[in-house]
Specification:
about 350 residues; Rossmann fold; Dihydrodipicolinate Reductase, domain 2; nine-stranded mixed beta sheet; six-stranded parallel beta sheet; 15 strands; globular
Length: about 350
Amino acid sequence: MINWGVIGAGGIAYRRTIPEGITKSKNSKLVAITDINLDFARKISCEYEVKLYNNEEDLINDKAIDAVYIATPVFLHHRQCILAAKKGKHIFCEKIMALNEKQCNEMIDVCKSHNVKLAIAYMMRFNSIHKKIREMVKNGVLGKIVLGRAQLSCWYPPIEDAWRQKKDLGGGGSLADMGSHCMDLLEFIFDSKIKEVSCFTGNFVHDYQTEDTSIVTCKFEKEAFGIIDSCFNIPDYSSKNMLEIYGSKGSILCRGTIGQDSNGLVEVFIEKKEAAYNAGQKRLNPDKTTNLEVKPINIYQAEIEYFADCIEKNIEPEISGELGLHHIKIIEACYKSAKEQKIIKIN
């Protein structure tokens, strides 16, 4: 059983990771929290009957805690990770990992030198639908994969002191915050790394410092292309958050699997035999359409149980600090591409 402390108990921690992940996990126990909003933190500590600390240093010094979940604004991740690692705490850190490559490398190094695990919270990998699609791609059900599209958008208007709307606090806007999930998901499904990107960013609706609109086209190591679009300016109900995978033998179209939920709607289109050229390009054939039925699992519970299992079995997590660093490199390359208006290769 892994004892957890939460640094930054509001936001995603309060909405999802604490109630659905840590407290429901079979191999985890919530023992302490801290948050900059102490009144709100006091409410959470009473709700879950756990210790309340006034700051992260006191929480990290608690010898009963085995692992910390860092769910604070991005600019705090680096400092809090280093503090926790030096006290021997395993670290589960929200994405994006840090503000830049230098911070990521320092986080990785300190965790290695103090023999603690470091993982990044890419929970969409744990969606049972996405895992099934990855399996189908690996087994060649769709033939040669040629294109993937991942979309994650929401309505995020100007809010006073919102850290995601300030570059030096959140590392970027819609691209860094939501596009990073899409990058990871396509790489996971394709089992292939992004090696080149071309990107556009803009502020089409909101006038805050970070972008409210981004689109990335990318090339994967396994010769497939990808499209990632993320916006902070589309109303939530209109943000369908599509995942589309296309191959030489078929396609998979998902709605609602990308995001904070653990399910979604999925259609699979598979060609049963080699298709001849059809000048009429007939699109409708209900015999080739099926719904993908997969038993849903809670993605927050799954990611917490996975990391706790890695700690108990001394296994390096796949959602590692190195993976977080890789995605920071992609994000930095995207912003460079948008600024310089050219294709950027990922080192």
